[in-house]
């Protein structure tokens, strides 16, 4: 019976998170096109706040607090978020070097890029990524970790994270090679430092730099890799395999590093 309680808590947390996502999707349709580049920002903000409230309520029900996931000491956490952002940017820089090694790429400035159009997508990315981290690397992760072990927590949350992206339209091979292994890095960072702000900074940087460099098509594309569109299937597979290997090595290095996360509350 005791073993079923964590599963029931996890299921309830996920159900309520799903309700928040439904509200988010409804607000996306309501605000579509009405706020220009910021049309998606308000729904994403609502989703992030809902995820934060869920974490707070579930922690409070157990006599715990949001400090366990890094919502304390603002100066420290802001610093961690900035460090995470720099580290995430470095990882994407390595991705770009790998891309250039496999497919000799020349970048050109995107003709449609404008500084004014970037503010909205950046704000959306911050709140959207915050919601994801609060759901997958917050209370749920700690609940699974202390009940079934960190390996289970990592695999379960990374798998859910990947399935969500596949459901959103990401091809399964790209999801497994890129999304799942990126989630491994996010989980490794959380296991070591137990700080959502740190992981959020890293996560935002990976999305921001991918779009800025044109690795993902969006209004934020400052550069466009000219040869990428004409890459062969074999070359694309090599790039995905290289990214998966790099992410996995980074994640394993963080997991294996000396410092451990703070002890989890019983």
Task: Give an account of the 3D structure.
With 266 residues, this protein is mostly helical. It has one domain. It is built from nine helices and two strands; from the N terminus they run αααβαααααβα. It has a two-stranded antiparallel ribbon with strand order 1-2. Helix 3 runs parallel beside helix 8 and helix 7 runs antiparallel to helix 8. The longest helix is centred in the N-terminal third of the chain and has 29 residues. It is globular and about 55 Å long.
Characteristics:
mainly alpha; single chain; 266 residues
Summarize the structure.
The protein has 266 residues and is mostly helical. It has helices at 4-31, 41-61, 74-102, 115-136, 139-148, 150-167, 172-193, 196-212, 233-256, and strands spanning 107-109, 223-225.
What are the SSEs and their pairings?
Blueprint: H1 4-31, H2 41-61, H3 74-102, E1 107-109, H4 115-136, H5 139-148, H6 150-167, H7 172-193, H8 196-212, E2 223-225, H9 233-256
Helix pairs in contact: 1-2, 1-5, 2-4, 3-8, 3-9, 4-8, 5-6, 6-7, 7-8, 7-9
Number of continuous helical runs: 9
Euclidean distance between termini CA atoms: 18 Å
Strand content: under 5%
- Helix share, percent: over 70%
Total strands: the figure is: 2
Order of helices and strands: HHHEHHHHHEH
* Protein structure class: mainly alpha
**What topology, given as strand order, has the largest sheet?**
1-2
Please tell me what the overall shape is.
Answer: globular
| Overall average pLDDT | 89
Describe the main β-sheet briefly: 2 strands, antiparallel
Query: What would you report as the Rg, rounded to the nearest angstrom?
Result: 19 Å
Please mark out the parts with pLDDT under 50 across 5 or more consecutive residues, or reply none.
260-266
Provide the domain count: 1
């Amino acid at each position: 019976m005791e073993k079923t309680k964590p599963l029931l808590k996890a299921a309830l947390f996920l159900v309520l998170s799903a309700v928040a996502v439904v509200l988010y999707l409804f607000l996306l349709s309501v605000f579509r096109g009405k706020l220009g580049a910021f049309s998606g920002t308000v729904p994403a903000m609502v989703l992030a706040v809902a995820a934060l409230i869920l974490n707070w309520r579930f922690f409070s029900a157990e006599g715990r607090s949001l400090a366990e996931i890094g919502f304390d000491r603002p100066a420290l956490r802001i610093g961690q978020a900035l460090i995470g952002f720099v580290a995430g940017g470095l990882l994407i820089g390595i991705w770009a070097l790998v891309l250039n090694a496999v497919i000799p790429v020349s970048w050109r400035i995107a003709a449609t890029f404008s500084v004014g159009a970037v503010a909205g997508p950046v704000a959306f990315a911050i709140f959207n990524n915050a919601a994801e981290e609060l759901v997958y690397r917050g209370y749920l992760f700690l609940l699974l970790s202390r009940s079934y072990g960190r390996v289970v927590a990592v695999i379960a949350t990374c798998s859910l994270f990947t399935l969500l992206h596949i459901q959103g339209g990401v091809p399964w091979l790209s999801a497994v090679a890129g999304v799942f292994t990126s989630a491994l890095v996010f989980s490794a960072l959380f296991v070591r430092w137990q700080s959502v702000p740190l992981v959020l900074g890293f996560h935002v940087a990976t999305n921001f730099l991918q779009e800025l460099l044109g690795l993902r098509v969006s209004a934020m594309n400052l550069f466009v890799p000219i040869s990428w569109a004409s890459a062969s299937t074999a070359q694309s597979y090599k790039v995905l395999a290289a990214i998966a290997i790099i992410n996995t090595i980074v994640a394993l290095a963080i997991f294996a590093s000396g410092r451990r996360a703070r002890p989890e509350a019983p």
